Amino acid sequence: MYLIALCDDEVSELKKAEQMLSGYKEKHSAKNIRTDYFKSAKELLEKVREGYMPDLLLLDIYMPDKMGIEAARELRDMGNKSRIVFLTTSKEHALEAYGVNAVQYLVKPVSEPMLFPLLDRLLEEIERERKKYLVLRVKGRTQRVAVDDIVYCEAQGKTQCLHLADDTQCMLRVTMAEIYGLLSGYPEFVRVGIAYIVNLGYIGSLNAQDISLNSGLKIHLPRGAYKALKEQYFQYYCGEG
To answer: Is residue 61 exposed (0-12), middle (13-18) or buried (19+ Cβ within 10 Å)?
Structure first.
């Protein structure tokens, strides 16, 4: 599902946007898009503080209770990473918009030819980004882990330990085969014996005896594993067989 939020204090603008977004959802029903509408920045910020996080936020700049730029700064300070598109009647705040990592700046009146191609592009970006995350059950909580942050996975009995780039660990009550099933679609991950899955992007060097990760950690290679691993390593970095 994709969650799109619109925040605008003008009721007429909300209604126009609602009609356009309804039309977009009908044309893209397979994407399962949900839309939410807020009449003030305060209402939006309160919802975000409760854990609400839209994929995409269409945010009016000129609102009486709080300027959209100011609301966006508060969202970023809270760690909100929603893609923000500013809607406004003036280009006066264009530079400030990019200061809060806004992805676009649309001048009203917003029309379907302006909005729909932008939504297509942003939802495609979100879809690609989602494919680079694993949603895992860690200590009874659902946690999203970026694939790029996984350095290696180590079997520890009936538990698998994901070692992440920030030196944290995720302990998972699943099998090594299940973890590899989740990671096998990413060419950077390779099996090393029965106990390890390693991200090739974090390997500094390797020889017939072991792998040296960028962190300095060494992982022993099982007998006969070096040739195939070396080929995968060069294939990943150089496109060579």
So the answer is: buried
